Amino acid sequence: MVIVLLWLTASVAQAGTFTVNNFADFQNALQSIALDPANDHTININANITMTGNVAPIAVNAGRSVIINGNGYRIDGGNAYRPFFAHQGNITIRDLTIENARAQGGAGGIGRSGGGGGLGAGAGLFVDQFANVTLENVQFSN
């Protein structure tokens, strides 16, 4: 019985507060949130960040929140990456500069008929229909 109780205790997810000092921390925080959508989360950015890869979309269950405290720092997409894809939940981003972000659309069909290219929308922040996003003192720059 003790083993079962320990297992149940270990499997219960907890709300997370993440301290971010570099891109790996940022990537890990967003991935951890993606794996725990049933809780509220806070990300505290404590340094300027330059992205070197993609990150997970922000998605928490309806009624749950993610707060990102930028603390006056910058996230630089390196002219190649999108820092934020708000998919679902209540998301607040505060005191942050988002710069040099990019969302690359697809090239479309090749050949005589051609075809539509993919939509490259929301370079710094893409807000999906299931997300409610609040921005406080956030600047976008290229």
Give your account of this protein's structure.
- There is one protein chain.
- This protein is α/β, with parallel strands linked by helices and 142 residues long.
- It has one domain.
- It has two helices and seven strands.
- The longest helix has 12 residues.
- The termini are far apart.
- Strands 1, 2, 3, 4, 5, 6 and 7 form a seven-stranded parallel sheet that branches.
- The N terminus is likely disordered.
Radius of gyration: 18 Å
The biggest beta sheet is recorded as: 7 strands, parallel
> What's the number of structural domains?
1
Shape: globular
Output the number of helix runs.
Answer: 2
CA-CA gap between termini: 58 Å
Low-confidence runs of at least 5 consecutive residues: 1-13
Approximate helicity band: 10-25%
Q: What class would the helix/strand composition place it in? A: alpha/beta
Strand-residue proportion: 35-45%
Mean pLDDT: 85
Q: Please provide the ordered H/E string of secondary-structure elements.
A: HEHEEEEEE
What is the number of strand segments?
Answer: 7
Quick recap:
By secondary structure, the protein is an alpha/beta fold.
SSE topology:
Layout: H1 2-11, E1 16-20, H2 23-34, E2 41-45, E3 49-50, E4 58-59, E5 65-76, E6 84-99, E7 125-141
Parallel strand pairs: 1-2, 2-5, 3-5, 4-6, 5-6, 6-7
Keywords summarizing the entry:
142 residues; alpha/beta; seven-stranded parallel sheet; 42% strand; disordered N terminus
